[in-house]
Amino acid sequence: MEFFADWHTHSTYSDGRGTIEENIRAAVSRGLEELAITDHGPANIGVGVRGPESYLQIKDEIRKLNPQYDSISVKTGAEADITAPDGTVDLPRSIINELDIFIAGLHPYVWPSVINGVWSVVGINQAARFSRSAREKARVNNTKALKETVNRYNVDIVSHPDLRMPVDIPELAAACAAADTAIEINTGHHYDKSELVKNAAGEGVNFVVSSDAHFPATVGELEAGGLLLEKFGVPAERVVNARKSRS
């Protein structure tokens, strides 16, 4: 398979090291047709955007830059944080409606939006590193929160669902398949994703391969994700940012 888009990259609006334009130039150099700037939501402690209105600034900057790069379409997106057990994210719907790409995911260090989220969203996942029972409880909590998010919002992509926070992948994948939400194969975080692909593929869910680039140099580095999907027999037709190779 060959990739035409990288829909998960970060800029200096959050914890990325490159500007939006530097990411665009990197994507153009790799021959991509589409790029999305998807900075972290404001509840991500220490790395998120300053506030929800930052996405309007990003959108305006992209609008001004797009005419200068006619070989690529640059989209405004966000990687929102789940901040409550009921699937609430850290962006209002008024901002989400302004986005071209909406990614949602779990992150270990966020500001919960409700009191009980201090334990059920954050604390239990820290305890899960040391306790098997806490890990199982975290798995239940995380899976429920992700499913609630997918059901409540028009989520395009669930980001790195198995990264450091346990999730029941088949259960999540079934919910994503029903909601037409893609599960991400993230090439920016280097960990074994074999179980993710193996357990999700049988549920009929579609995938997206993303760089999660925090540096312009890694924008569009997607090949490892494609090789992994091919290893498990996932065809290009089920990878929303890929097509069959013409070679």
Structure, described:
With 247 residues, the protein is of the alpha/beta class. The protein has one domain: TIM Barrel. 35% of the residues lie in helices and 17% in strands. The chain is built from 8 helices and 9 strands. The strands form 2 sheets. Strands 2-3-4-5-6-7-8 form a 7-stranded parallel sheet. The chain has a two-stranded antiparallel ribbon with strand order 1-9. Helix 2 links the parallel strand 3 and strand 4. Helix 6 packs across helix 7. The longest helix has 21 residues. The protein is globular. The mean pLDDT is 97.
List key phrases describing it.
247 residues; alpha/beta; single chain; seven-stranded parallel beta sheet; 35% helix; TIM Barrel; two-stranded antiparallel ribbon; 8 helices
- Beta content comes to 15-25%
CATH superfamily membership: Metal-dependent hydrolases
Which CATH architecture is right? Alpha-Beta Barrel
**Sheet having the most strands:** 7 strands, parallel
Number of DSSP helical runs: 8
Assign the structural class, choosing from mainly alpha, mainly beta, alpha/beta, alpha+beta, or little secondary structure.
alpha/beta
- Calculate the mean pLDDT score and round it: 97
Order of helices and strands: EEHEHEHEHHEHEHEHE
| Rg, nearest Å | 17 Å
Task: Describe the secondary-structure layout.
Blueprint: E1 2-3, E2 5-9, H1 20-29, E3 34-40, H2 54-65, E4 73-81, H3 93-96, E5 101-105, H4 117-127, H5 132-152, E6 157-158, H6 169-179, E7 182-186, H7 194-201, E8 207-210, H8 223-231, E9 242-243
Parallel strand pairs: 2-3, 3-4, 4-5, 5-6, 6-7, 7-8
Antiparallel strand pairs: 1-9
Helix pairs in contact: 4-5, 5-6, 6-7
